[in-house]
Amino acid sequence: MVKEIKHPTLGIISYYTGYIIVGMSLFMILPASASALFREWNVVLDFLISLFISLSLGMVLVLFGRNTRLHNGRLMWKHGFVVASLSWFVLMFLCAIPYLLSGHMNSLLDATFDVMSGFTTTGVFLLQDLDHISIGLNLWRHMLTFIGGQGMVVLALSFLVREMAGAYKFYVGEGKDVALVPNVRGTTQIIWIISMVYLFIGTSTLFITGLLIGLNPTNAFLHGLFMFMAGWSTGGFAPNQQNIMFYHSFSFEVVSILFFILGSMNFGLHYAIIKGKKMEFLKNIEIQSFLITSLTGSAIAAVALAKSGLYSDSVALFRRVVFNIVSANTTTGFGTVFARQFILEWGPLGMLAITLVMLVGGSACSTAGGFKGLRVGIVVKAFFADMRKLLTSERRVKIEKYHHIKDMVLDDAVVRTSSTIIFLYLLMFTGATMLGAYFGYPVVDSMFEAASISGNVGLSIGITATTMPSAMKIYYIFAMYLGRLEFLSVFALIGVMAQGVKTWLKRA
Amino acid sequence: MVKKSVILVFLFFLFALPVHASKWTINELVENASLLDGVVVTIEAEAIGEVLERGEFAWVNINDGTNAIGVYVPLDEAKKIKYFGDYHHTGDTLRFSAIFYNSCDEHGGEMDLHASSITVIKAGSPTEHPIDSLKVIVFGFLAFLTLGIGVYFYHTVKPKRVHGHQSEEETE
Amino acid sequence: MKRFNFNRATFKSDAVGYASEIGWMVLYTIALFLLSWIISVIPW
C-alpha cells in the first residue's frame, strides 16, 4: 500500500535538501573540535548551537518528504536543479550562524554574504577584525570554500550507499557534468579522493614552507591547511587581513600558485592525467584557452606596469603582476598587492587585462568561476570554423572538432549553449557594473568589482566593504550564487517556486 | 624687503608642512603610496600574528584598524614585542618611524615599511572571552530539541532490519 | 562504507600521475617567470 502524497514535488525536494543539510551540519563538528583544542570555549558553543539548529532543520525536512522516496523513479531534472540551488540557499543562512554568534559581523546580511562568498569560492568578505578571529571560525571559513568548491551536492552524492537513479540530475544541478566513471557515486567519490590526496600533499608542502619562513609549527600547519583549502578551491580566503602578503615570501607564493592552478583544472582532466594520459594536458581545449589568456593577460599587465616604472625587475613583475593575473584568471583571488593598488597603480591597460581574465575564468567542472575556458574556446573555435566555411568551396563538408578529454564534435547545439551562458554572465556583470555606478562608484572600479564577483574571483578594488549599500550586497550575493551554479539551477528554483505560487493561488 | 619674504616663505615650508615624520594610518599610506614613496613616516599599530625571522632581520605584521602591513626590522627590535594579536591576545601597540616603500626593491616590489627601531608604547594582554550564560541556556535547550527530533528521525527513517528485508531507502 | 580503495597496483601509477600533474604546474610557473624576465629586460 502506498500512501497518497499530497505534494510530491515539494516532498522530493524537501527530502533531498534535508539530507544535504544534515550532511553539512555534521561538518560543524570539525571547527567545534578545533576550538575545543585551542580553548576557545565560546566558539565551541557557537558551533554546537549552529550544529543543533541546522541538524534539526535538516531532519525535519527529511521527515516531511520521507514518503516520496518510494517515487524515486520520478526524479526529474527540475528536482535535481532545485535541490542543488535550494540547499545552497538554505545553507547560506545556517552556515552564517557561527559567524553571527562570533560578533565579527555587522549584520545578518554581512554574514550570509560571507557564507555565499565561501560556498561560491569567491573570496571577498565583510568580516571585521580578521586578525583576531578564533581558529574555529577561521577553519570554518576555509572549510566552506573547500566544500563549496567541490560542491555540497557532490559531497552528499559521494556518501550514497549505492547508486541512485536520478543522482546525475542533482550532480548537474550544482554546475558539473563530467562523468569520470559511468556512475555518479563513483565520479563524486573520485573527485573527493583527488581533493583529499592534494589536501595532504598541499598542506604538507605549505607546512614545510611555513616552517622555513619562520612560522611556529602550529601556525605553519594551520596556515598551510587554510591556504591550501583556499587555493585548491580557488576561493582566495586567507587567515589574515593581508591575504598572502602576510607571509612576505616568494616561496610561499610559488607553492600557492602550483596548487591554485591545479585547483582550477577540470576534474575530468585530473582523472585523465592521473590515470596516465599525461599529454592530455596540452591537447585539452581548456588548458589551451587558459595558457593563451593567462600568458597574454600577464604579458599585457606586465608591460603596462614595467612601462610605468613601478616594478623594474623580473621578481617584482612576477610576484606583483603575473601572480595577480593568474590568480584572477583562475578566479582564485589571492592578492600580493593591496586592493586599492589596482585602481591607483595599474593604469587602463593593466586594469583591462585583469578585468578580462577575471571574466574568462577557469575551467569548467572545477572550482573556478567565470565564463569558463571551455566555452570561450568553443566559441572562438566556432568563429574560425565559420570563417573557414565561408572561404572554402561549398562542396566540402568538414566536421569541426575540439578536444576535451576526448575528441568532441563542435556542433551548433554546443556552440549555442556556450554562447548563451557567456551572454548570461555578461548580462549579470553589466548589471553589477551599472548598480555600482548608480551608487556613485567610478565606472572602472565598478567594472573590476563586478567582474570579480561575477567570476567568483575575490580580488577587490575596495568597493566590497561593510559600508556598501545593502542593495549591492544583495545583488552581489545573487551574482556569486548564479555565477557558481551557472544560472540554470537557480532559474529552476525560481520557476518551481513560481509554479507553486500559481497552483496555490488557483486552489485558493 | 625681498629678503624678508624669502625668509617668511622658508619658515612657512619649514613649519607648516610636515618636515619631521608625521603620523599616518596604514590605509592612508596605501591611498597615497606614490606620494609617500621613500618618505619617513610615523606609525602606531598593533603587532599581530607572529614574528617571521629572516636572518638578522624580521617581519612584523601590524594592524591599526584601518589596514594591515608588514614592517621589516632588525631581529633585536622585533624581540622587544611580547604579545602578538590573535583570538587570545591583544598585541603590543608599537610606535615607530619607518621608510615607506610603494614597491620595495629588496622585497620583490612589496608595499612595506622599513624601520630601524620600534617602541612598545602600550603592552598587549591576554583577551578575556567570558562564556555567555545565555548561550549556554540556548545550547541546552537546542541539545534537547535536537535529541528529540533525532530519536524520532532514527526510528522513522533509518533502515529497519526486521524480518530480514531491506528498507526502502536502500532499494532505490 | 568503503570510500577509499587502497589498491597497491594502481597506487604506484597514480603516484606517477599526480607527480606529472605537479610537473606540468612547475613547468608552467617557470614559463611565467621567463615571461616576467623577458618583459623586465626590454626597455619600454
Give the structure's gist in a few sentences.
By secondary structure, chain B is α+β, with helices and mostly antiparallel strands. Chain B has 5 helices and 8 strands, in the order H-H-H-E-E-E-H-E-E-E-E-E-H. The longest helix of chain B is centred in the last third of the chain and has 25 residues.
Describe, in plain words, how this protein is organized in 3D.
The complex is a heterotrimer of chains A (508), B (172) and C (44). Chain A has 508 residues and is mainly α. Chain A folds into two domains: 8-179, no CATH class; 279-466, no CATH class. Helix content of chain A is 67%, strand content 2%. Chain A has a two-stranded antiparallel sheet. In chain A, α2 runs antiparallel to α3 and α6 packs parallel to α22 (470-485). Chain A is globular and about 65 Å long. The two termini of chain A are 30 Å apart. Chain B is of the alpha+beta class. Chain B folds into two domains: 18-126, Nucleic acid-binding proteins (OB fold (Dihydrolipoamide Acetyltransferase, E2P)); 133-164. Helix content of chain B is 31%, strand content 32%. Chain B contains five helices and eight strands. In chain B, β2 (57-63) and β3 (68-74) form a beta hairpin. Chain C has a domain at 11-36. Chain C is built from one helix and no strands. Chains in contact: A-B, A-C. At the A-B interface, α3, α16 and α17 of A face β1, β2, β3, β6 and α5 of B.
User: Helices and strands of chain B, in N-to-C order?
Assistant: HHHEEEHEEEEEH
Q: Assign a percent range to the helix content of chain C.
A: over 70%
Structural class computed from helices and strand pairing of chain B: alpha+beta
CATH class of the largest domain in chain B, named: Mainly Beta
- Using CB atoms under 8 Å apart, which protein chain pair has the greatest interface? A-B, 62 and 56 residues
Domain tally of chain B: 2
Mean pLDDT of chain B: 88
What is the CATH homology-level superfamily of the largest domain in chain B? Nucleic acid-binding proteins
Content-based structural category of chain C:
mainly alpha
The 3D shape of chain C can be described as rod-shaped
Cα-atom radius of gyration of chain B: 29 Å
Instruction: Please state the average pLDDT score of chain C.
Output: 85
The end-to-end distance of chain B, rounded to whole angstroms, is 102 Å
Unreliable parts of chain C: none
Strand content of chain B: 25-35%
Secondary-structure element string of chain C: H
